[in-house]
Design a protein that fits this description.
Distance between the termini: 51 Å
CATH architecture: Up-down Bundle
Number of domains: 1
Shape: globular
Strand content: under 5%
CATH superfamily: CDP-alcohol phosphotransferase transmembrane (TM) domain
Helix content: over 70%
Largest sheet: none
Length: 207
């Protein structure tokens, strides 16, 4: 069973429609709502066990919404924009929370934020907003690894058996996720630049 691109129907054309109230979009909103809940559980309540559960639900919705969108033809232009924003908000907010809680060091947050900051600056320069690029396979794998590694890391902080094994496994997964994060950012950098220059050249030719 494949996880990336699951739910796709061979031979069926992919069309992003002008839909708002769809199951995938509602799941994406649920992922947004999980962010403040996670922050409250970790920083205010010190409830790491419940925080792991929230992260697991947030991570599962990232896969489920994509599956439902492809399987039941509920892909939408709104979802295409909201989904990566929800992923970024979740990953960065969780990283900031874990830095404050002393679970990870500041360099982990920097490794997440720096590539995204560069891509955001380029998107605003060329498009004054979202570049509307398709999510790459590397990007999808990167997000999956980071969403898997983070709850494992939080889990390793609990007084449970095999906590050390969870810690080691978490950093292996997160390390692979960070490598994928930078590779995906490199690819998006050149994709944004190519698309941006093409649009500027077209505008110049029509002026």
């Amino acid at each position: 069973m494949r996880f990336i691109g699951a739910g796709s129907r061979p031979g069926q054309p992919h069309v992003d429609r002008d839909l708002v109230f769809t199951v995938p979009n509602l799941l994406t909103v649920l992922r947004f709502m999980g962010v403040p809940l996670f922050i409250w559980l970790v920083l205010a309540q010190k409830e790491y066990g419940l925080a792991v559960l929230v992260l697991a639900i947030m991570g599962s919705t990232d896969w489920v919404d994509g599956y439902v969108a492809r399987r039941f033809n509920q892909t939408s232009k709104l979802g295409r924009v909201l989904d990566p924003i929800a992923d970024r908000l979740a990953l960065i907010s969780v990283a900031v929370t874990l830095v404050i809680a002393g679970v990870v060091q500041w360099w982990y947050l920097a490794a997440l934020v720096v590539p995204d900051a560069v891509l955001l600056a380029m998107s605003l320069f060329y498009f004054h907003g979202h570049p509307d690029l398709p999510v790459s396979l590397v990007g999808k794998a990167r997000t999956g690894l980071l969403l898997l590694g983070t709850p494992l890391l939080v889990l390793s902080k609990l007084p449970i058996p095999f906590a050390d094994a969870y810690f080691v496994t978490a950093w292996i997964v997160l390390g692979l996720g960070l490598i994928g994060h930078w590779v995906a950012a490199y690819n998006y950098f050149w994709a944004i630049r190519r698309k941006g220059k093409t649009l500027k050249d077209d505008d110049g030719g029509h002026s």
